[in-house]
Amino acid sequence: MNSRSRPTSGPGSPWDGEFARYFGERAHSLRATAYLLCGDWHRAEDITQAALLKLYLAWPRLSRHDTLDAYARKVVLRTFLAENRRSRWKRERLTDEPPEVPAADAETEHDMLVRQALAVLAPRQRAVLVLRYFEDLSVEETATTLGCSTGTVKSQASRGLATLRQRLGPHFGVWALDRTEGR
User: Fold this and answer.
1) What is the reported pTM?
2) Which of 1, 61, 69, 183 is the most buried (most CB within 10 A)?
3) The three-state (H, E, C) secondary structure of 99-133, written as one string
4) Of 16, 33, 24, which is closest to residue 131 (Cα–Cα)?
């Protein structure tokens, strides 16, 4: 079987093993990023799966595999933003019964408060804060990932942080530092 008759996509494609290795190494990290963006593990799993499918389909065209992590993170982010645009019309409906809430996986009170505060931010502000402060990207890297200017990243980060400070209160940072110093 010559290289022209080999399948270019689907099972048995030449890059399946390479993609499977990448998936195994990075799926957890991408899922964690998606979770920080959306605040729901089930939705984060859906976003990650959709993003990895897009990545798999683009795999043969990815000539610069040294930038794969940045590209994968960008795909997760764009999948999240696109999902939010599509689902804007969906709103929560009030019922007389509380929703079923899954048990948190050893989530600390601090983590829960930060996640809840992140959830009130606009998706773009949330994306900037997750990329800048959880993924530890520079302003320039964040701007490249989001496809915007560095000024937009700075203003979105400033507004997002102001909202978080307002939601979490002035003593939250001091409380968080006190909590971590005892470890």
Assistant:
1) 0.60
2) 69
3) CCCCCCCCCCHHHHHHHHHHHCCCHHHHHHHHHHH
4) 33
